[in-house]
Amino acid sequence: MFRSRPKPDLKLIAPAQPAPPQSAHASSPERAHAVEPDAEAVLRRLEWTVLRRLDGVLQGNYLTLFRGFGIDLADVREYRFGDDARTIDWNATARLQVPHVREFHEDREVSAWFLVDLSRSVDFGAGATTKRAMAVDFVALIARLLTRFGNRVGALLYTDRVELVLPARAGRTHVLHLIDRLRVTGQQPQRGQATRLSDLLERALQVIKRRSLVIVVSDFISDPGWARALSMLGQRHDVLAVRLYDALEMALPDLGLVIMEDAETGQQLFVDTHDTGFRERFAQLAASREKALREALAIAGADCIELATDDDLVQTLLRFARLRKRRAQLSSGGVHTETAQ
């Protein structure tokens, strides 16, 4: 009756037997919005619960997080022991008969763009939080961190197509506008349309002209073909992939008879999760998809942070900081041993 799909993106929607009443912490977007009626409430909560903790951990040093991309020649001086030999100015050295090196002034201004996947599959969350809610909080936090230092942020929001292009601007008001658009975009997208992440990435190639930090926020449940577009994006920009996931997408518990629904097409299946063989096949499909996703990201050359629906955002942002520091060391040719776990 139903065609099999190459990705395990089925969503558990109801047990076959009567279910207990949902708690006040249930994870639908409507309930989350009832608690936080506007973007100001969302940002105020994040500033108090996450940014204040992050300030204490990083002690105000955000240079490991954000770097500009432009460099200007500031001066030429005599070579000193320990200077990077790659900075030697050979013309000045030949003219003055003494080794000289170039000194550069780095542009600290950053333009960041968020490419946010708001297709129906990100509305899933088995616990108190959906993937969409985590995406909104993560984007809001990074956007606020950037704009606190005068940097600009923009966004492309995708459902089953690119719904909105938000130009890069600075300021807290702009962050509030971004949060508001994230909260309302794609709440009721048309079903039957599979996600084509390549459409979002290709549109970003057209829109983003200046070299920028590009953060792709998605669960990467998509038709294939996006790795090439992500690779092309990485040739022009500094690209970071933020992969959203929920633990229930990796392995199913024994819940008995349940109805499962494809979040994007609306197709439903009646399955018996008590069947050990079924749960094993589901886990195998999830593992295969994980392997394919990691290979695609490696081919594209994109750094990746994984963000689960039950993750602590402070710890996630510290992983982000370590990854940015590692990237900065690679760019400057520095030696490093740190990895982002």
Approximate strand percentage: 15-25%
Spatial strand sequence of the major β-sheet: 6-5-4-7-8-11
Mean pLDDT: 79
- What overall form do the CA principal axes indicate? globular
Q: Poorly predicted ranges (pLDDT <50, ≥5 residues)? A: 1-8, 14-35, 334-341
Distance between the termini: 42 Å
Question: For the report, how would you describe the main beta sheet?
Answer: 6 strands, mixed
Number of helices: 9
* Structure summary, number of beta strands: 11
Alpha carbon gyration radius: 23 Å
Give, in order, the helices and strands: EHHEHEEHEEHHEHEEEHEH
Class based on secondary structure composition and strand pairing: alpha/beta
**Helix share bin:** 25-40%
What would you note in describing this structure?
Helix 4 packs antiparallel against helix 5. The strands form 3 sheets. Strands 6-5-4-7-8-11 form a 6-stranded mixed β-sheet, with helices on both faces. A 3-stranded antiparallel β-sheet has the order 1-9-10, with no helix packed on it. The chain has a two-stranded antiparallel ribbon with strand order 2-3. It is globular. Strand 4 (111-117), helix 4 (131-147) and strand 5 (152-158) form a beta-alpha-beta unit. The two termini are 42 Å apart. 38% of the residues lie in helices and 22% in strands. With 341 residues, the chain is α/β, with parallel strands linked by helices.
Q: How would you sum up this structure in a few lines?
A:
38% of the residues lie in helices and 22% in strands. It is an alpha/beta fold and 341 residues long. α4 links the parallel β4 and β5.
